[in-house]
């Protein structure tokens, strides 16, 4: 959540399931439907990967 707090606060991103979180100590997963191409989702995944590289 730390990676996206500013964007959540500004409304640029939304939490689709409210304040629900998944607790995971080792890994996080982001998936898309097989065979579907959604440019905005792919852009978000690319951005997220870059954020992980710079904050890990």
Automatic annotation (TrEMBL):
| Any one GO molecular-function label of the UniProt entry | DNA binding
Which UniProt keywords are listed? DNA-binding
Tell me what this protein is called.
DNA-binding transcriptional regulator DsdC
Which organism does this sequence originate in? Escherichia coli
